[in-house]
Amino acid sequence: MKTLYVTDLDGTLLNSNDRISQYSIQTINGLVAKGMQFTYATARSLVSASVVAEGLSTTIPVIAYNGALIIHPDTGEVISSLSFTREETNDAIGILREYGGNPLVYAYVDGVERVSYLMGRENDGIRRYLDVRKGDRRFRPVQEEESLYQGDIFYFTCIADREELLPLYEIFVRDDRFRTTLQQELYRPEYFLEIMPKKASKAEAIKRLKEIWHCGKVVSFGDAINDIPMFEVSDECYAVANAVQELKDRATAVIASNDEDGVAKWLERNGRIS
Known about the structure:
The protein is an alpha/beta fold. It contains eleven helices and 14 strands. It has two domains: 3-81 and 200-270, 3-Layer(aba) Sandwich (Rossmann fold), CATH 3.40.50.1000; 86-197, Hypothetical Protein, Haloacid Dehalogenase-like Hydrolase, Chain: A, domain 2 (2-Layer Sandwich), CATH 3.30.1240. The chain has helices spanning 9-13, 22-33, 46-52, 86-98, 124-131, 145-148, 162-173, 202-212, 228-232, 245-248, 262-270; strands spanning 3-7, 37-40, 62-64, 69-71, 78-81, 104-109, 112-118, 139-142, 152-160, 178-184, 191-197, 217-222, 236-240, 253-255. The chain has a six-stranded mixed β-sheet with strand order 8-7-6-9-11-10. β6 and β7 form a beta hairpin.
């Protein structure tokens, strides 16, 4: 019976410097070379994830945008993608306008993946988000709101103080057409409100990968509340020591922290080669 090993990136496999240590890269790459079925599931895009996961060997597709996209990192082949319906998009835009939301809008515009935002309305959190991703060709600054919502939209992100985002969160989280998370950025004061299609989750994407790769078991690793659905569909699930308590309470066990190579050390001791 093959086992699928899935790890979150930020706060789990990535250390506090937003990098994967050489020890973790060498350990995991060695296991993958021997046949381990290993991948990652992240809220990041493939573009952003590929930068921080440089050097990491993955032989199967990865999960991006919290499950909205399953994509092969080497070829760019999209295995699965989810978008909002036109009605969902229109309703989401209406709510964002009513409550003063200032979103980053992720969409395929003319078949190309773009992240659109209104020029001149960037707050400190958005500016940092853009600055740490300089050169990202997905970015599409627009001057008019009409242009902001073009294309096939599959993800919204608002970055601001918790108090500013909480009213929006409370509206979206009660609407079962959407999957909504609100959590603080790692090592930063600002919060991220993320709005996705209902079926977009790490859990649903993992179930799809498990089926495609004919794996009978799933073992996952995480640190944050958006990893809870992933834990719920895993046969075993491990929270790193720096994880939020809510995730630790759901874990099979707690392992060493992200700064102590917790995932790689666990895999080295306990991982099974298919």
